[in-house]
Write a structure and sequence with these properties.
Blueprint: H1 21-32, H2 50-53
Length: 54
Amino acid sequence: MSECPICGAPTETRWRPFCSKRCADIDLGRWLTGAYAVPVDETEDDEPDRERER
């Protein structure tokens, strides 16, 4: 059985990968407030191609 990423308790099938609704809600709150972020490699080459804009 795996561990809840929030509190470390064993996971419950209903709330997987969390142990409870509380831990699932904590995780959701962290995403919504920006505590978690997906890293992005921002370079100057990321500007849209003019050909694709047409």
